[in-house]
Amino acid sequence: MATDVQSADAQPVIDEEQYYHDAQLGALWTASRTLIPVVAAAFGGIYFAYFYLRSLNSNGLWDPHGQTASKIIGLSILLLVVAGTAMQLMASRRLRRGFSTDFIVGTAANVLFLVIATGLQIWELTRLPFPPAASGYAGVFIAFAPVNALCIGLSAYWVFTLMMRAIRSYSFYRADGGIGVSAHRAAENFRANLDGFGAYGIFFMLLSILSWYLFYVLH
């Protein structure tokens, strides 16, 4: 009887380490996906101003002199972002197959592309053929360019931290097949972070294509 009572009153044993690990994975998933609507809202405000002022075109002041930002620089920034995203996706797939070195090399290339793209976007602001208040287009572009440079720069920082973690843990996970396949909790945490960047990277690449079309082609 006593045994039955003890069995009935017994509580399930909770693995606290696994509990906190699952919480970390959930937090990484939520934070990375929440960043997508946050960035979308920032660019959405700029796009709203773009279409509103373009459709209003008060006194023909949307773009009266046809002075737009450099299409060559704009296309260069877009190609760097697209190439970096493609490189990162390929590197992540290689990591999942146990090729950590390929991931590090591919990620380093992505970091380089994003840093160059950030520099080009900032440099473009120093050589615009119009002042901020020259036209509706000029005002919206002056709002867009710093936001775009900031987002690209933060993307470079995010993926750089992933690359450094992979380099630091290279020897530790080698016996396990690499950080991309290891069942270690820290490795799972790393892959969750990487998956979050992958989702954000694809989103930002599509956003960059739209921005390029609006500000450098349609304008």
UniProtKB/TrEMBL annotation:
Its main location: membrane. The keyword Cytoplasm does not apply. It is found in: Cell membrane; Membrane. It is a multi-pass membrane protein. One of its GO terms (biological process) is respiratory electron transport chain. GO terms for cellular component: plasma membrane. It comes from the Bacteria. SUPFAM superfamilies: Cytochrome c oxidase subunit III-like (SSF81452). This is Cytochrome aa3 subunit 3. It comes from Ferrimicrobium acidiphilum DSM 19497.
